[in-house]
Amino acid sequence: MFLPADKSDEVDLRKTYDAIVVGSGAAGGMAAHVLTSHGMQVLLLEAGKKLNINQELKSMEWPYDHPRRGDMPPDSHALSGREYTIRQPPYAKGSSYKHVYSYVEDGTGSDYAKDIVVDEKDHPYTGTPYAWVRARCLGGKTNIWGRLALRLSDYDFKAASRDGYGEDWPISYADISPYYDKVDLYLGISGHKENLPYLPDSLFQRAVRLNPAEVKLRESMIKMGRVVTPYRAGVTTDGLKHNKYRSRCYGRGACDRRVGGCDIHAAFDSPTGLIYPALETGNLTLRTNATVNEVTVDRNTGKASGVSFIDTDTGKTYTAKGRAVLLGASTLESARLMLLSKSSLYPNGIGNSSGHVGHNFCEHLMGPGVNGLMKELVGKPRTLDDGRPGSFYLPRFRNLTDRNPKFLRGYGFEGGSGTGMFPDNAYSTPGFGSAFKKTVRDYAGAFIGMGGFGEVLPRYENYVELDPEVQDRWGVPALRFHIKFGDNEKKMAADMADSAREMFEAAGIEVLGVSREILTEGYSIHELGTARMGADPKKSVVNQFQQSHDVKNLLVVDGSTHVSASCQNPTWTIMALCWRSCDRLAEELKKGNV
Ligand SMILES: Cc1cc2nc3c(=O)[nH]c(=O)nc-3n(C[C@H](O)[C@H](O)[C@H](O)COP(=O)(O)OP(=O)(O)OC[C@H]3O[C@@H](n4cnc5c(N)ncnc54)[C@H](O)[C@@H]3O)c2cc1C
Ligand code: SF4
Predict the structure, then answer these.
(1) Could you tell me if the CB of 183 is within 6 A of ligand 2?
(2) Whose Cα sits closest to atom 27 in ligand 1?
(3) Cα separation of 99 and 84, whole Å?
């Protein structure tokens, strides 16, 4: 496949770009796409490198073709879930390993994603335990994301009016729905219409198929007034005629191999979905290995004048100029950048007159879930169940029409079942020889499990700040975390575990195990809220168009601007909001209002 690697240019440091976009993941990629399609001259700065992602992922490589069956080299270490709970960050400090990666590198560590995620040794952070997963390369985390692509509804945008906690968003579903449609059509999403007011349908391409165990669970849930729907995957199952860099899904399931990705790009990733097409317009200059360390300010106007960035390889610093600056470095990194951008005009960091930058953190809690056995499937003919980009989703059902006495908001479950390439039950099945193999095979397709994702309430006290002492490898101050789950999260987690068991029992599934433990803060990789939007400049950082209340040519276009986390995965919403804001910015730039 043609990779337009040769199309990236040197930054013209004398030129004033119409817009400078920081970060090339879901948010930055979308900003580059929308602004270049409006004819704007855009400079996209990405801290990581441009990887040949197909060579990294090698998704069709068989385990026996890899010298270590897919594991990382022995000098590298992936943090275990336990390490996050018993130790304090920085987690790589004092480690005898040459490279240390986050838990997402999975168990012994996947050799296929180690260049995509950051080496914790170079990127320390401090404070309360937090499992921070970062990807520094072109496309960021979208190269390995889990693809569950969900919309939010007015149950989320107006949650505060419904239950009295926190703030409403300054937008409603009607404002963002046309932009969800644009994202669906431009990037492709597979799913099945359910007509649920609390989980709006997308403009779906062909859905992934539920297997017999999942169909049975779906039928049982209907009786309980709950829904099991095919995984809503940010994957093009029918193909996209307008994008030559992407293919339709062949159902190879490789995107689920440990931390995986799709090297035919049926699953959305920002480079092939957004950045390469933006490069084709001729309006985009892409500079990788460019770590932005400050938003610079014009002292006369108070507006952003551009950014200063460090060449990641040489350590040299440059300044680029722009009429507008858009931060899409990911939630916590954008907050860090705003806090780093201190000046006499903005002593608390740019755009931070409210003091809310870094605060109101929210995310999803994970951990509670259930595993079971669908006995009637034992010994049945085997099916191919991992040839799908996802299995099923069970949407929220708490605090919709009822009011739970113990906790606010809701949670949904991601689940899966059936036969995969490697049957996990081989580890736990006793015996050996042909009888052992038969037992493993007979049972392999009969297991089913699901894990919850619950809404973590935004709280001002859950925040990040700059660490006064610790710096990253490039001398940039690290983040210090002050983030802890509260009482609502603990009560919600207990209910998640109870309801998971109750649903499996109702479906006649033999419950093999219920997990009640909450995983460390950060585990969901859905960090949100550290520069929230709102109408009141005293209580929020940006307006509904993600434009800073203080600095009108500064936008924050990633998950930082979420007012609350909802329990639905954030990436599709990040991109829909960003598209809306960039349409508005393009208009305002043309009118000379910014
Ligand atoms: C394993 C995994 C599974 C996931 N599953 C799902 C899922 O199923 N559904 C879902 O909705 N979401 C999922 N996510 C989360 C999803 O990937 C993120 O929501 C999404 O990528 C956020 O986009 P972003 O642009 O804000 O950040 P990123 O994708 O992280 O991109 C940010 C980019 O900014 C760059 N950057 C950072 N700092 C700087 C700087 N100072 N200067 C220049 N560049 C900088 C980074 O290198 C990076 O490339 C998952 C993530 C992971 C890792
Ligand atoms: S199942 Fe589809 S999305 Fe996943 S790796 Fe295969 S082709 Fe890509």
Answers:
(1) no
(2) 330
(3) 17
Do residues 472 and 237 lie in contact, with contact meaning Cβ atoms separated by under 8 Å? no
The residue whose CA has the least distance to atom 7 of ligand 2 is 249
Ligand 2 pocket check for 235: Cβ under 6 Å: yes
Q: How far is the CA of 141 from the centre of ligand 1 (A)?
A: 4
Q: Which two tokens stand for residue 157?
A: 């945008």
Decide: pTM greater than 0.85. yes
Tens of pLDDT along the chain (594 residues) come to 444 544 456 899 999 999 999 999 999 999 999 999 999 999 999 999 999 998 898 888 888 999 998 889 999 999 999 999 999 999 999 999 999 999 987 666 788 889 999 999 999 999 999 999 999 999 999 999 999 999 999 999 999 999 999 999 999 999 999 999 999 999 999 999 999 999 999 999 999 999 999 999 999 999 999 999 999 999 999 999 999 999 999 987 778 777 788 989 999 999 999 999 999 999 999 999 999 999 999 999 999 999 999 999 999 999 999 999 999 999 999 999 999 999 999 999 999 999 999 999 999 999 999 999 999 999 998 888 888 899 999 999 999 999 999 999 999 999 999 888 788 899 999 999 999 999 999 999 999 999 999 999 999 999 999 999 999 999 999 999 999 999 999 999 999 999 999 999 999 999 999 999 999 999 999 999 999 999 999 999 999 999 999 999 999 999 999 999 999 999 999 999 999 999 999 999 999 999
Rounded Cα distance, 463 and 472, in Å: 19
The SS3 call for residue 407 is coil
Ligand 2, atom 6: nearest CA belongs to which residue? 252
Residue whose pair of structure tokens reads 């460390």 in the numeric block: 520
CA atoms of 299 and 288, how far apart (whole Å): 29
Q: Which residue has the tokens 């015996």?
A: 431
- Ligand 1 site residues (CB inside 6 A) read 22-28, 45-48, 104, 133, 135-136, 140-142, 144-148, 259, 291-292, 328-330, 333, 337, 525-526, 558-559, 569-571, 574
Compute, in angstroms, the gap from residue 513 CA to the centroid of ligand 1: 32
Tokens representing residue 480 in the block: 């210090």
